[in-house]
Design goal:
mainly alpha, 62% helix, globular
């Protein structure tokens, strides 16, 4: 069992990608599937940005426990990036055109915004985005939002979620060490909130546009009214809106001057899930 967040372990994804993926893999519905697909499109480049941002200050970390966490953070995020790129291949195999969006996203976010931000601001943005991913991870592990997901997507996202909870304090603790300024933390949080919401929405619109019927199409392949073969539907009570469940909660918590990611007592969720799939 995981006994302490300082004992982080990079793990390869326990995901059978060869099993493929249904087109509308979340409850047979297009919209919930693409909300999840859209954030997935942001992950690989985002994870590598997190690594770069923390690595810039790795030599400033003298505490042995935090140094160990930083090294494991690099390993976990690296595995996440590679696993989600394999997920991209499944989307491409379903006929989704995602590469133009990915090129534009990386050009604007990392060739553009990242380059004009100071290293300290980039680290602040990373700490803020790690807070958002930890909230999404908690929701995935305890709210049942992935109960009706295809096994490939469910395994990928729950493994990722557990590790996000495990290392949720790392970037924040490095930021506190480098520059504990509340103003810096909030400026980074504001930039993180705007860019995450902007790119997530853009990715969602790109995917949903490909569900619209095209001239000359036969049948209902492109219709959002026909969302896969599953006859199950996600209950409305199982959905918390992204706005309320992620952004409003994230803002409310992060704006507290005394905030620390460890105040969200959810490490037991990661421990239970990882132990249940055979990781110790």
């Amino acid at each position: 069992m995981i006994t302490d967040p300082s004992s982080l372990t990079p793990r390869k994804p326990p995901v059978a990608f060869e099993q493929g993926l249904t087109r509308h893999w979340l409850g047979g519905q297009a919209l919930p599937t693409h909300v999840a697909n859209a954030i997935n499109l942001l992950f690989p480049a985002g994870e590598r940005f997190f690594i770069r941002s923390v690595a810039r200050y790795a030599d400033r970390v003298e505490d042995p426990a935090l140094r160990a966490q930083v090294r494991a953070f690099f390993g976990q995020e690296g595995h996440h990036a590679k696993a989600h790129e394999r997920f991209f291949d499944l989307l491409r195999g379903q006929g989704y055109e995602i590469d133009r969006f990915l090129r534009a996203y990386e050009r604007v976010a990392y060739d553009g915004i990242e380059r004009v931000c100071s290293p300290a601001l980039r680290l602040s943005v990373t700490a803020a985005l790690e807070h958002y991913t930890a909230i999404m991870a908690e929701d995935a592990l305890q709210a049942g939002t992935l109960d009706l997901a295809h096994p490939t997507a469910r395994a990928l996202l729950l493994w990722h979620a557990a590790e996000e909870i495990e290392h949720k304090t790392v970037a924040f603790d490095v930021l506190k060490l480098v520059n504990p300024s509340y103003a810096l933390r909030i400026v980074g949080f504001a930039l993180a909130t705007v860019t995450l919401s902007m790119f997530w929405l853009a990715a969602l619109l790109v995917l949903l546009a490909q569900e619209l019927p095209r001239r000359g199409d036969r049948g209902d392949r492109g219709s959002c009214g026909s969302c896969g073969s599953s006859t199950e539907r996600l209950p409305l009570t199982r959905h918390r809106s992204v706005l309320k469940g992620v952004f409003l909660r994230g803002i409310r918590e992060y704006l507290r001057r005394d905030f620390h990611p460890s105040q969200n007592d959810n490490l037991h969720l990661a421990r239970a899930y990882l132990a249940g799939i055979g990781f110790s």
